[in-house]
Specification:
Blueprint (H helix, E strand, L loop, with lengths): L1 H14 L9 H10 L5 H13 L4 H44 L3 H30 L3 H9 L8 H23 L4 H19 L2
Helix pairs in contact: 1-4, 3-4, 7-8
Length: 201
Amino acid sequence: MTLLELFWTFFKIGLFTFGGGYAMLPLIESEVIGHGWATTEDIVDFIAISESTPGPFAINISTFIGRTVGGIPGAFCATFGVVLPSFLVILIVSHFFVKFKESKAVKGAMTGLRPAVVGLIASALLSVGMKVFIPSESLSVAFREGFNRNTLNFFTEVLPLIISITLFIVSAVLAFKKKHPIMIICLSAVVGIITGYALGL
């Protein structure tokens, strides 16, 4: 039953996602957390792994979640489920697109979909960003009510936040300067490993 549920859940995600892997993050978060298969923190880890490994993001994250929930069969069901709608739809669209690409209805649909996709990606960015930069409840309270050294542990809450923000800024600057993404990913991973061991996280 779990395998069928995995397939159907990711089939729906694949069917109603426009704009690629990042646009499906709100759907993945809603469905996976709703089923109790993972927490928001788990999803952030899945995103990091999926971005750091070869292959399309959507397939990677589906495979990782499926593997966690249902083992190898779960990975297959989740991956097959998320890929199948795109495969079927692109077969149909490729057949008719050349004929109807100048249609006002088709152009209008594309015009409407583009901002919606950007909105979905922005939603995922905010959701994941909040969990990455403000992982603990005490940090969340501190941002709302002001920082208090008596309620925050510098080494387990404040310092990791500073490191995360620094890594984000450095990565953004390196990306803006057209440095190779692999170098940025490797650098971030090394800093994360060193930080984790040093702080006992």
